[in-house]
Amino acid sequence: MKLKQLEGLLGSIQQFSNPKVDLEQYPTGPHIASRLLYTAEDTFGDVDGKVVADFGCGCGTLGIASALLGAEYIIGIDLDAQALQTASTNAENLELDIDLMQCNIKSLSWSGRVVDTVVMNPPFGTRKKGSDVVFLSMAFKVASQAIYSLHKTSTREHVKRVAFRDFNAKCAEVLCELRFDLPQLYKFHKKKEVDIEVDLWRFVP
Amino acid sequence: MRLLTHNMLACNIKGVTNGYPLGLEAEKWVEKEVDFNADFLRGVFPKIEWRALVGAARALGFPDLLPEDAPDPSVLSSSDDFLRRFHRALLELHVEEGALVCPETGRRFPISKGIPNMLLHEDEV
Ligand SMILES: C[S@@+](CC[C@H](N)C(=O)[O-])C[C@H]1O[C@@H](n2cnc3c(N)ncnc32)[C@H](O)[C@@H]1O
């Protein structure tokens, strides 16, 4: 599948109708989501034929993008039942099979190393400090091949340190810097926070 | 929820030590065809907990789909029939309604519209 085609399909999926502020519910836009997964597949071969887990899957954007790029098995996990229902409908509309599960990433309990790749756009921790690191910690426990994640550029040194020191990463690299335009979903967002700088990371566990 | 997901899941209640595999109650399930990918099956086979998969297939009413004991990996190249059965069990059966049950505490995690709910109560975290 071509990048443009992927971006187009992702643009057609339904997003949070009623975003919950506490859970930092905002979608990864089709531009960023398509590039994230396209790079993962095209440059690193981390998607096609793989088992992919989408942490904090929301309405399923990243999991659906993985499926469109040939992932063999996808499991999306989120706390929120409503978002999961939307994800389920989105997958069905595109005739994709995606497993979904309602669970707090913090208390996920998985055995074995069946998952190859974790993809996620974790809560940046603007509401609950350190949420992105909680997600990252769990991703390192389950992924056997690679982890793709978005973190605020302002936390780059911190993310790098915890990846190597706490999670024993073999590799942690920023693939690119992005401007993430958070749509003004939330009233508390001051104007300057609407457009934030975000790093796309690839970690090897 | 498909059986590969069940194969990975353990009970996540704090303090539980024998939370794997989760029991499976399937009130409603469906079967959906998936493209057959032998390379994928060969790669994933060594990572699968065999007894959990056999138990889950049995819970869906397939007592004879899979051999009781994990077969020797050589079967992956010698038997197409085995690969087809493994494929079906792992990827094509979806539990729509039912529950996952912790083997240690008996706690039930409901599965509704295909989505298991593994959220814990406050006193379980
Ligand atoms: C920034 S959104 C990303 C949504 C989606 N992955 C996407 O890329 O469009 C973060 C998601 O994480 C979920 N979430 C927040 N905290 C969570 C937790 N502790 N466990 C599981 N999911 C969580 C939210 O419900 C939300 O859907």
TrEMBL record, chain A:
A molecular function GO annotation: nucleic acid binding
Coiled coil location:
none
UniProt xrefs under PROSITE patterns: N6_MTASE
A Pfam family = MTS
- Methyltransferase small domain location, by residue? 34-137
- SUPFAM superfamilies reported in the protein's UniProt record: S-adenosyl-L-methionine-dependent methyltransferases
So what family is this one in? Belongs to the methyltransferase superfamily. PrmA family.
The record's listing under PANTHER family reads: RRNA N6-ADENOSINE-METHYLTRANSFERASE METTL5
Q: What is this protein called?
A: Methyltransferase-like protein 5
The species this protein was found in: Apostasia shenzhenica
TrEMBL record, chain B:
Q: What is the lineage of its organism?
A: Eukaryota, Viridiplantae, Streptophyta, Embryophyta, Tracheophyta
Put simply, this protein is called: TRM112-like protein
Family in the record: Belongs to the TRM112 family.
Pfam families reported for this sequence:
Trm112p
Q: Name one GO biological process term.
A: tRNA methylation
| Record's subunit section | Interacts with TRM9.
The superkingdom of the source organism is: Eukaryota
The residue stretches assigned to a coiled coil in this entry are none
Q: Which GO terms describe its molecular function?
A: protein heterodimerization activity
InterPro entries on file: Trm112, Trm112-like
